[in-house]
Amino acid sequence: MKVYGADICVNCRNFKHIDKQRNLNLEYIDIIKDTANLKEFLKLRDNSAVFDICREEGGIGIPCFVEADRMTLDIDEAFSWIGQPPVREDELLED
Fold first, then answer.
1. How many domains does the chain have?
2. Per-residue confidence in pLDDT tens, the chain, 95 aa
């Protein structure tokens, strides 16, 4: 699974913490690390209805989880794709 995010985002930092704690080693793509990553993410964001609400509300839409032909902004939905339980409150690094 690919996970698009940026370390300036609290939800992305929480994801990275949970990924490490659960030893998942999912592919994290930092969209602000270089322009190729940003362009890859923007192509998804500009062409998917998953981001409609984000675009309307002026949000970015990260973290974004992509596996095969599925995409979601919901970490619990993404984790269900790989047989992981939902995130517990005590797994969050920060609120």
1. 1
2. 999 999 999 999 999 999 999 999 999 999 999 999 999 999 999 999 999 999 899 999 999 999 999 999 999 999 999 999 999 999 998 87
**Radius of gyration from C-alpha coordinates of the chain:** 13
For residue 67, CA distances in Å to 8, 43, 63, 64, 88 come to 23, 16, 13, 10, 22
Which range marks the domain in which residue 72 is found? 2-91
Name the residue with tokens 């994290």: 28
Sheet containing 70-72: give its strands across: 27-30, 2-5, 64-67, 70-72
Selection from 43, 75, 49, 47 nearest residue 62 by Cα = 75
